[in-house]
Amino acid sequence: xxxxxxxxxxxxxxxxxxxxxxxxxxxxxxxxxxxxxxxxxxxxxxxxxxxxxxxxxxxxxxxxxxxxxxxxxxxxxxxxxxxxxxxxxxxxxxxxxxxxxxxxxxxxxxxxxxxxxxxxxxxxxxxxxxxxxxxxxxxxxxxxxxxxxxxxxxxxxxxxxxxxxxxxxxxxxxxxxxxxxxxxxxxxxxxxxxxxxxxxxxxxxxxxxxxxxxxxxxxxxxxxxxxxxxxx
Length: 232
Known about the structure:
Layout: H1 7-15, H2 28-42, E1 46-49, E2 55-58, H3 67-78, H4 85-93, H5 98-108, E3 115-119, E4 123-127, H6 134-148, H7 155-166, H8 176-181, H9 183-190, H10 197-230
Antiparallel strand pairs: 1-2, 3-4
């Protein structure tokens, strides 16, 4: 997988429909947030303090030369209190226009185009049809090689498989039969069994994303029900 493609961009490429440019996948925002945290962990900009209830701290606040990573790092640095990884997955997943900021980074790299289309002749939505298919093809090939073989895996690819699984994007890359046959391999990659300690911490961000994604529908439903009963 090309190192010029960030993990959060790879998640978005998998989520975008190549021709229509619409976004697919469940809880892509949280997988994107986990990808941002993974990049910061892998580049040793943040750390997980195991002696402080696994809370996240900033190690290096210098610019990463990446606007989204800098925004995420700035959020963590300026927070009034330290948070655990899963808390940051939730908070960063709620950054304004996060998915569109990621898509715009792909526009700037001339990988996708930015367009607007009418919905029901009344509303406009932003879509991002693919211009250059090569980066996504490389991503898919790297993911397929990681899952379908038993060879050692480059950490970023293992993390991407975990990210894609948390966002329900693996069916974009593999058939149902392939996922069934290689279920154990996907689980190994998700647990970080074949990667470095730094990558394992990054995988923890993905696990946090899965946790957040699992509980958010219940929280939303409970909040809606509460508002309905109190007319808020």
